Give the backbone structure.
Amino acid sequence: MRPLILGIISAFFFAFTFVLNASMEVSGGSWIWSASLRYIFMIPFLLLIVIARGNLRPLLDEMKKNTGNWMIWSFVGFGLFYAPLCFAAAYSPGWLIAGTWQITIVSGIILTPLFYETIQTNHGPPIHIRGKIPYKGLMMSLIVLAGIFLMQFEHAEKLTMSSFLFGFIPVLVASFAYPLGNRKMMEVCEGRLDAYQRVLGMTLASLPLWGVLSLYGLFTVGPPSTGQSLQSLLVAICSGVIATVLFFKATDLVRGNMQKLAAVEATQSMEVLFALIGEIIVLSIALPTALSWFGIFTVIIGIILHSYVSNQKQDTKEQTTISV
């Protein structure tokens, strides 16, 4: 239950991303700065936390040993995740991006065969087997996605094809990149680093991308405004630090069970509800219709069912530890 609670809390703070990115886009801010400033602003906060916990040296040693993997999977998990999300904000409203982002629930399950489970046996060495798609969890995730569709259906009818494509395809890429990068880094770290270290390490390893993107922004759109900088700072604290650390902590707690990992990832569907409330308060969007409220109810039911399925005892399996 604790990993699911942490996942839901992280979804609340992740929702700041969609609301504030929409706000920055409305005020004329460029997606380039929305993306790069978040990770640049994250560094001092994460450094202070990791240094205060006395864990900076172990992190640097780990990064030195696996520099290539850190660079590649941080680019995937952070770069190909957040830059497309910010790009999509220039073409679609926050509620649609938050809704489309929930595809990551299914994406995470589809990626399962790319990783291996380590079965701890009573006799002999551990056995490594390729992960299998948890079909019960997949069915529960589809219920969640059905709820998302109901929430967005009436709004989506008003979108142009270009807004849909530029708002959908980048988010689709991000939906696969985030769980892939997160799981690959857990595989590289093998439990040797905590969530704070892992987030800081991935942020540092992705800095070359944000540096190049910032230079591109200076020459194409000019420096960011004070308002966009302040909102990006808020995104960095709420979503980049608080939400990411909570989510990584939740996934670390269930590294030993692929179904529970999928359930934790499914909690992120609550971002739609939180983003909707945020846009109503901050951007004064219209209240949801009856169909949208039915969609919200469906999402909540889907999460409850997902949690139930993921916690069912598997009589044919022993307790496992998954290397993800």
Observations:
- Strands lie at 116-119, 127-130, 320-323.
- DSSP finds 14 helices and three strands in the chain.
- The first helix runs from residue 2 to 26.
- The chain has one domain: 2-323.
